[in-house]
Write a structure and sequence with these properties.
This protein has about 120 residues and is an alpha+beta fold. It has a single domain, classed as ACT domain (Alpha-Beta Plaits, 2-Layer Sandwich), CATH 3.30.70. It has a 4-stranded antiparallel sheet with strand order 3-6-2-7, covered by helices on one side. A 3-stranded mixed sheet has the order 1-8-9, with no helix packed on it. A hairpin with a 2-residue loop joins strand 8 and strand 9. The radius of gyration is 16 Å and the shape is globular. The N and C termini lie close together (about 10 Å). The relative contact order is 0.28.
């Protein structure tokens, strides 16, 4: 089950930047490979390294995060598989087929969605 507010509901994936966790060692080379995958999916913008005032943002495991502004992801399953096949990519934000229902909080109450 997934619980979210109505702002997270979209008709097609890609409205929000897609986070891609990458091993820090050699991350620039991995970023080039990610750019190739995104281009293959007709996503023209390369992923950007996530930074904050303190510098490069790192995960608890010491990895870095790239954010891909995708616009619309036409084939999320293929993009997920293509990203996971890249050496250096640890994980991505396309969590597909993990829930059997979604509970959505709206201004008028709760809505339940099923795939």
């Amino acid at each position: 089950m997934v619980i979210a507010d109505a702002a997270k509901v979209v008709k097609a994936l890609g409205r929000f930047a897609l986070p891609i966790e990458v091993v820090a060692f050699g991350h620039k080379t991995t970023a080039n490979r990610i750019a190739d995958v995104l281009a293959d999916h007709e996503i023209g913008m390369p992923a950007r390294l996530r930074t904050a005032d303190r510098g490069i943002v790192r995960t608890d495991g010491g990895n870095v995060i790239y954010d891909a502004a995708c616009g619309v992801i036409a084939d999320p399953a293929r993009l997920a598989a293509d990203l996971k096949s890249l050496t250096g990519v640890v994980e991505h934000g396309l969590f597909l087929d993990l829930a059997e229902e979604a509970i959505i909080g709206t201004d008028t109450g709760v809505e339940t969605l099923h795939p």
